[in-house]
Amino acid sequence: MLTACSSIDGVGHNSASSRQIFSPYKYVRNNMASNQNQLIIGVTGKSTPLLDVIPKQLKTITLAFATGECGEENWDGLSGAVFAEANMPLLARKEINYIISTGGQAGSFTCSSDAGFKKFIERYHSAQLSGFDFDIEAGQTEEQINQLIQRIKLAQVAYPNLRFSFTLPTLAIVDKPALGAIGLTVMQAIKKAELHDYYINLMVMDYGVSSTDACVLGADARCDMGVSAIQAAMNLNRYFGVPFDHIELTPMIGGNDTEDEVFTLSDVATIKLFAKKNRLAGLHFWSLDRDTDCAPGPASPDCNTYGQAGLLGFTKAFLY
To answer: What is the spatial distance between Cα 67 and Cα 73, in angstroms, rounded to a whole number?
Structure first.
C-alpha cells in the first residue's frame, strides 16, 4: 500500500483554489539527442537546454508524456529512471516546479498496483513536484481507468500536497456536454469511485471542421478559439458539476491540426480574463517547443504556424 510522506512544498491541491497554475507543456523527447537525456528546446534555432531559454517568470512546466505501466514507465523509449535522474535534480536546483504528464494522443498509461504507483511517484519526487496529470485520449480500457483512479485515491492520502488532474479532449458546443466517449468514461469512473479534489484539464483545441456541432463560430465562420475554450469550461461546470476552481484549459498555440483553427494572442487575452474572473485552477498550452514563429500552414511540432508572436511570445502573453 502507499504510505504517507512528509509535506511537499510548491503548488499543492490544498492551495490550488486560491492559486492558479500556469504551466505550458514541454514534449520531453523533442530535440533530445539519443546520446543525452536532459530537457532540450529548439525555439531559438538551435538545440539549447530548456532551463537556459525559458523566462525567469515561468515557475512551472508540465512534462509530457510518460507511458506504459506505472513503475516501469518510459518517455518515448527513454526509461523513467534515466529521465528522472538526468532532469529532476536540475529542475529542483533551479526551483522550477513541474507536473508529470502521462498518456497523450499516441500512448497510454496504466497502473495495476499500489506498489507500482508509489514507485512512479517517488521516482519524480522533489520539493518542486507539483503533481501528476493523466492525459486520457485513447488506449486505456474502462477497467484500467478505474484502476488508475483507485491508485489516485490512495495517493491523495499519502501525498496530501500533490495535485492530480485528468486531461480530456472536448468539443465546445453551446449548451451540450461535448466531452466525447472517453471523457464520459473518465467522468463516470470518477463519480463511481467517489474521487474528490481532482482537476479536469480540457484540451480546447483541434475541434475538426468548423461548425456549431464542434465549436463556437466567430464572424468569419471559423472556430473562435478563445470563446470556444470558455464554452467548454462552462459546459463542464454546468453538466458535470466541476467547479471552475477545479477546471483547467489547454489550448494549442497558433495553428491547430485543423488549419483554419488558429489560437492567437488575442485568444490568450480572452481566456486569461475568463480564468481570472472565474478563478480557474490552471492554464496551460501545447507546447513550449512550438512557441516560436513560422509561416501559417499545417501544424508543426517545432513552431506555431501563426507567425505573429515572436520568440516565446505565447509564453510571455500568458505570463504578463
So the answer is: 5
DSSP 223: B
188 Cβ partners below 8 Å, 6+ apart? none
CA Rg, the chain, in Å?
A: 18
Q: Is 140 exposed, middle or buried (CB count within 10 Å of its CB: 0-12, 13-18, 19+)?
A: buried
- Please, which residues bridge with residue 99 across strands? 62, 131
What's the predicted TM-score (pTM) here? 0.93
pLDDT in tens, 279-309: 999 999 999 999 999 999 889 999 999 999 9
CB 81 within 8 A of CB 43: no
Q: Contact, 178 vs 232, CB < 8 A?
A: yes
Q: Are 50 and 94 in contact (CB under 8 A)?
A: no
> In terms of Cα–Cα distance, which of 95, 164, 83 is closest to 126?
95
Contact 201, 248 (CB under 8 A): yes
Beta strands in the chain (DSSP E): 21-22, 25-27, 40-41, 48-49, 60-66, 68-69, 74-75, 78-79, 97-103, 109-110, 129-135, 163-169, 199-203, 247-250, 254-255, 262-263, 282-283
